[in-house]
From TrEMBL:
Residues 164-281 form the RapZ C-terminal domain. This is RNase adapter RapZ. Signal peptide: none annotated. GTP binds at D59, I60, R61, G62. ATP binds at G8, L9, S10, G11, A12, G13, K14, S15. Pfam families: PapZ_C, RapZ-like_N. The lineage of its organism: Bacteria, Bacillati, Bacillota, Clostridia, Peptostreptococcales. GO terms for molecular function: ATP binding; GTP binding. SUPFAM superfamilies: P-loop containing nucleoside triphosphate hydrolases (SSF52540). It comes from Alkaliphilus pronyensis. Residues 1-154 form the RapZ-like N-terminal domain. It comes from the Bacteria. Keywords: ATP-binding, GTP-binding, Nucleotide-binding.
Length: 290
């Protein structure tokens, strides 16, 4: 029987995760009192294989009951069952934004600020996060990307490291992303902006990518960039880093940065890394027209 404990920060996407797990054929229970976990597993085991995959959402909503979790996990092992912990995380800024959008109060700060609640919750879950076999940072994940991550781990059974690489293209004239770990300036590459038929296109268009990469400088840079990132990835994993944000910027964030971002994304994906890509400013011109 496969037992998955889903936990993590409030607002990090546990509700979405459990819906996806249900789609994958897992028997799911949200907010089960931890003390009941061993009994629930035994109950499922008595179905003689009819229920062989379960996912349980356990978090600080359980209040005082949450303190029973660690004892329950010990009991599970004593009974001879294996379990794995999935921890969902996100940046404080994104968590605050999500709570404000839903107009909900934080469960650990009903009368205080959302930020205070997040700090308290992080402290409460610190030990549990260290015990987790899989950590997914949903800061930049779209719903379908979270589903793909879960599908890769729990449906297809692929094991991977906990480092999520997020590639972000941007334009320097719109500001450098505040959460970037690494920033690369590609304004020295051939600029399609000065080609009239390419100006209104983006690096999402093949003709633009071909123009940018039709240069030895572009080819050499892309190879050296991949070499550097490939060298750094295991170092970050060794340090226990969960998310690496690689920001690639050009002037407007529409042509060169998008092109290099796409190239790096596909190369890292091919090498078996967990990677997503977002283009912050590539559609900025179109949005202003609307």
């Amino acid at each position: 029987m496969r037992v998955v404990i889903i936990t993590g920060l409030s607002g990090a996407g546990k509700s979405q995760a459990v819906k996806h797990m249900e789609d994958f054929g897992y028997y799911c229970v949200d907010n089960l009192p931890p003390i009941l976990i061993p009994k629930f597993i035994e109950l499922c085991n008595q179905t003689h294989g009819k229920i062989d995959k379960i996912a349980l959402v356990i978090d600080i909503r359980g209040g005082l009951f949450f303190e029973d979790l660690y004892e329950s996990l010990d009991n599970i092992e004593e009974l001879g069952y294996q379990y794995e912990i999935l921890f969902l995380d996100a940046s404080d800024e994104v968590l605050v934004k999500r709570f404000k959008e839903t107009r909900r109060s934080h469960p650990m700060s009903q009368e205080g600020s959302i930020g205070e609640g997040i700090v308290k919750e992080r402290g409460k879950l610190k030990k549990l996060k260290k015990m987790s076999g899989h950590i997914i940072d949903t800061t930049r994940l779209l719903p379908y990307q979270l589903k793909e991550e879960l599908k890769n781990i729990y449906l297809e059974g692929n094991e991977s490291n906990n480092l999520m690489i997020s590639i972000l293209s941007f334009g320097f004239k719109h500001g450098i992303p505040l959460d970037a770990d690494l920033v690369f300036d590609v304004r020295f590459l051939p600029n399609p902006y000065y080609i009239e038929e390419l100006r209104d296109l983006t690096g999402n268009d093949e003709i633009v990518r071909d123009y940018v990469m039709n240069s030895q400088v572009s080819v050499t840079f892309s190879k050296k960039l991949l070499d550097l990132i490939t060298f750094l990835i295991p170092q970050y994993i060794k340090e226990g880093k969960n998310q690496l944000v690689i920001a690639i910027g050009c002037t407007g964030g529409r042509h060169r940065s998008v092109t290099i971002g796409h190239l790096l994304y596909h190369q890292l994906k091919k090498n078996g890394n967990r990677v997503i890509i977002n283009h912050r400013d590539s559609l900025l011109k179109e949005r202003k027209k609307d």
